[in-house]
Amino acid sequence: MQKKFFLIDIEGVLIDHIESNRVFQDAQHFLDFLRRNKRKFVLLTNTARKSTNFIFQKLRVNGLDIDLNSIINPTIVAIKGVLLKNFRPPIRIFIISEGGHIEDIARFTDIIISYNEPIDAVLLGADREITYAKLNYAFNLILKKKPLIVLGGDMYARAKMYDKELFFLAEGAFAKLLELSTGVKGIYTRKPESIIFETAVEALNAAKEHTIMIGDSIKTDIIGALKFGLDAIFVNRQGKKLDRKTIKSLKEITNGSSKLFMISSLDPRTDLMRIF
Predict the structure, then answer these.
(1) With respect to CATH, is domain 89-188 assigned 3.40.630.30?
(2) Region(s) of the chain under CATH 3.40.50.1000
(3) CB-CB contact of 59 with 91 (8 Å)
(4) In 90-241, where do the E strands start and end?
(5) What is the CATH number of domain 5-46+192-274?
(6) Comparing 183-197, 203-217, 238-252, which segment has the lowest mean pLDDT?
(7) pLDDT digits (tens, 9 = 90+) for 123-149
(8) pTM over 0.90
């Protein structure tokens, strides 16, 4: 297999969890291997509440040599894959979010956050201090045919709030509320949606047949990539056995058009040599 371009998941592949300091020992070896062999890559993550700069700093502090612009999260996809393709700058948006989304948006001078019309689109991210007023304003904008762009899609998440570790409703729950009340389907910019893979492939200026996805989640990384028409590598660090239903589903998705590989390590001296 001769792949020139790589889409690499972050959590579970390069690092245990974005909030932790545990980087897998084979991660940097693998990135060095790609660079030595003149392969290009971007990092895909569904983490959007934390900005790409936060993720960049976290990975660099933990010894991973990566570039800020190589990180693609749902906010970046919303900007590059939706807003800049469908609207003429300056683009005015109404956003419900926490700081990470806004920090990413600030990198793009063509995007203006506004709380007064005219507004081109509604962006919805995780917000632990969401208000009825914000939701109702978004509701009215969507009724006026402004697209709803969902920066993620989780129904709930666990995080610290009021000095306690609690579950809280996330952007997916509020997106469903707005979809149900307006009859308008939101645009979701996270894996496994095709738009995040399309944005990543375009960022690399690559062709699908020369690109492969590497991830640890069957549901988001692997199924999303296969449906988009990419080959995929499932990083099975825990040695999980895939049940028959999952195997059947994967075979139906690939249908001979895409290839799926399974490895237990990113160490280029071991499992990966069977692929490369």
Answers:
(1) no
(2) 5-46+192-274, 89-188
(3) no
(4) 91-96, 111-113, 121-124, 148-150, 156-161, 164-169, 187-188, 211-215, 231-235
(5) 3.40.50.1000
(6) 238-252
(7) 999 898 899 999 999 999 999 999 999
(8) yes
